[in-house]
Amino acid sequence: MSRDTIVLLGVNHKTTPLAIREKLALSAGYDEPLLALGQLEELREYYLLSTCNRVEILFTCQNVEQARTRVLEQLFAGTLSKEEFDQHIYQYLDGQAVEHLFLVAASLDSMIVGEAQILGQLKEAYRHASRNGCSGFVLNKLLHKSFSVAKRVRTETRIGASAVSISYAAVELARKIFGDLAGKKVMLVGAGEMAELAAEHLLGQGVTEVIVANRTLQRAINLARCFNGRAVSLEELLDQLQHVDIIISSTGAPDLILHKKDVRSVMRERRNRPLFFIDIAVPRDLDPAINELDNVYLYDIDDLHNVVEMNKSERDKEAVKAQRIIAEEKLKFGKWLLNMESTPTIIQLRTMVEELVRGEVEKTMGRLEGLSEHDQERTEKLVAAITGKMLYRPLHYLKNENHCISLPDRINTVRTLFQLDNGNHEQDAP
User: Which CATH class for the 166-306 domain?
Assistant: First the structure.
């Protein structure tokens, strides 16, 4: 049987509009969809990643088309038409899948190149896959390699020196709208990592107060305490809108948490003082129709794409260096995959030769009485030395690249020459 194919299916901010992405977002977490994928006999190993800007499924299989169809049906049945799937979902195989994963981990495929948040999201997704027993020998190796590639890119380039996170981009947009943020009051809806990063950047811009609203009040209290702010429950959201200037929403709610009619009533209480919403949640938290109200400004995550243009040229220069690192690491991993194809043959060949050599030596030892422990050790070294010398040329033939003969052909030659498939390793007597 041939080696399994590595397949990566996904959508991201480059290929798919927000309205489509939020239909595919895994808002319920990882465990349920991982359990669903576990029911597919077509998959050998599998892994899921879901962030604000992308949903990606990485798996290994024998039949790519059959596995692709089953995966999309299992995870997204009824969400999109076949035409929409074909239009928006990208598919990468083997080397292309490896390269894409490395680009994502190194933040070269992010909306804002160089942001550090994606690596933490990759690791969190991997923890779920590992805990559920979904990833195996190949994907464990690949995902750990993606982490080390990201670290190497960040160490050897300045890709993160001028980079900003999605949360910082949201803050930059607020600064462009209001000018100076000093004296403004901000409410964070949701107490996740996005909200925490946004709060850090906002405090640096001189905001007067940070209010955290969350469905779980204790989480809101914990985050608010970090920034000398105050916490409120999500049920108090409408009341708090009367007192704040900027709202950054990043909950994991499956449905809208705030509608146009809610904000309209608040604006009367505010006497039409400007209110600025940034919705960085996927699926969206806020009703797009809110933007139709006077003195209300609503931006979603796709609007952040054009916010941060400063340092773009510098980031692009560093991205070239990062691309070179990724190309190197892709080649290394490709060689590992190739070597993995030959590993069963190498193990079988080594076992066969060692058994033959040991058998002949033991026949001789059987006629030699009184061998000392020292002589027995020397005999073991003799077995190892003869085995190594006999294996040197066939292993060199298997392990080293040959531009004229493919690895599968080289494996077949060795297996045929040493009769590894007939189950008979006994050598005929001369």
Answer: alpha beta
